[in-house]
């Protein structure tokens, strides 16, 4: 049974126990007015009956336990937006629809592999209200450099994130920056402006400049409380990302041996019990195939942030596609609340 299911079970048990006591109490005092009293108390906020007030308190506590899921998105390059026949396109649309119709966040805080702060112990936060797009890629068709993605930022949410980081001992600095392609490319598919608009503020936060998995796991922990405030955390990278081999083997989609082995090792490490997850995931970076799967770890580090933000919630691979020297694996930590 999942943690969220267990929470619902405990909540239901507590409510049943309280209602049983309430029935006994009402039977001995005012049974004939029981039904009307319940209606009055629940609709008008009348506090005369302590039993009903206890039920209200339990309901409030249970509501506060609901947390938004955390998503790791393998984002690809700018052509992801245009290759509508590629299998990842429909999968990203499916995930985006889940976020807009079921999670329904009030804001999104996003971490991308394409922004690492300067200085080993500092994090940067974008505080712009209207974000330009950063075309941080080269050698693509000209139309890729004319792509747009309508979006808004939020100084209020950015300030809130800064406070969360500072309270966890993380040095943080605000900056005015656009969204890099690790955000706007996949968001154009996840949240198509015409068919599935996001319509909430987007605040981008940097990675650390280091390749330390524990440092990035702690960064995720520092922002985990945002999930209880209906703020979704999305981390964007790639499950396997070797562009050197990608260019060398262009047109050959047969998975490289390290693509298959590392992709499965990542899935196994993410899916372990949360208490073991950090060490299992950190061990990935010491594997013999790690530097083949990721010559630099920048595209892998976001999933450490996601796992840290997940806390005691479990992680699962939603989908994967091993393609040459890339893996398009998509992950979610935590459950989606039933509508």
Tally of domains: 2
Oligomer class? single chain
Give me the CATH superfamily of the largest domain. LigB-like
- Measured by DSSP, the beta-strand proportion falls in 15-25%
Shape: globular
Q: How far is the first residue's CA from the last residue's CA?
A: 19 Å
Low-pLDDT residue intervals, each spanning 5 or more residues: 1-12, 18-48, 54-64
Note the total helix count: 12
- Count the strands? 11
Which structural class do you get from the secondary structure elements?
alpha/beta
- From the 3D coordinates, which CATH architecture of the largest domain would you assign? 3-Layer(aba) Sandwich
* Lateral arrangement of strands in the main beta sheet: 5-2-6-1-11-8
CATH topology of the largest domain: Protocatechuate 4,5-dioxygenase, Chain B
């Amino acid at each position: 049974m999942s943690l969220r299911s267990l929470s619902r079970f405990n909540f239901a048990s507590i409510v049943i126990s309280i209602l049983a006591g309430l029935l006994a109490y009402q039977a001995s005092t005012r049974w004939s007015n029981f039904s009307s009293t319940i209606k009055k108390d629940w609709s008008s906020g009348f506090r005369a009956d302590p039993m009903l007030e206890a039920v209200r308190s339990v309901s409030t506590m249970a509501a506060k336990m609901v947390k938004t899921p955390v998503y790791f998105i393998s984002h690809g390059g700018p052509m992801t937006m245009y290759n509508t026949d590629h299998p990842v396109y429909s999968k990203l649309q499916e995930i985006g629809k889940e976020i807009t119709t079921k999670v329904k966040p009030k804001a999104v805080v996003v971490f991308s592999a394409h922004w690492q702060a300067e200085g080993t112990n500092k994090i940067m936060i974008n505080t712009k209200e209207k974000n330009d797009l950063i075309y941080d890629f080269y050698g693509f068709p000209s139309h890729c450099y004319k792509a747009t993605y309508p979006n808004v930022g939020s100084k209020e949410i950015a300030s809130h994130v800064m406070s969360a980081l500072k309270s966890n001992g993380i040095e943080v600095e605000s900056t005015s920056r656009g969204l890099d392609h690790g955000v706007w490319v996949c968001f154009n598919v996840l949240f198509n402006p015409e068919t599935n608009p996001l319509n909430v503020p987007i605040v981008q936060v940097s990675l650390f400049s280091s390749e330390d998995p524990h440092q990035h796991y702690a960064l995720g922990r520092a922002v985990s409380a945002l999930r209880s405030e209906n703020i979704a955390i999305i981390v964007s990278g790639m499950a396997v990302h070797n562009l050197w081999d990608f260019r060398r083997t262009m047109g050959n989609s047969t998975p490289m041996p390290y693509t298959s082995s590392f992709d499965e090792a990542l899935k196994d490490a993410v899916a372990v019990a949360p208490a073991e997850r950090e060490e299992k995931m950190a061990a990935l970076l010491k594997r013999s195939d790690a530097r083949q799967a990721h010559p630099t770890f920048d595209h892998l580090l976001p999933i450490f942030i996601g796992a840290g933000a997940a806390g005691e919630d479990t992680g699962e691979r939603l989908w994967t596609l091993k393609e040459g020297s890339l893996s398009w694996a998509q992950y979610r930590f935590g459950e989606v609340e039933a509508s």
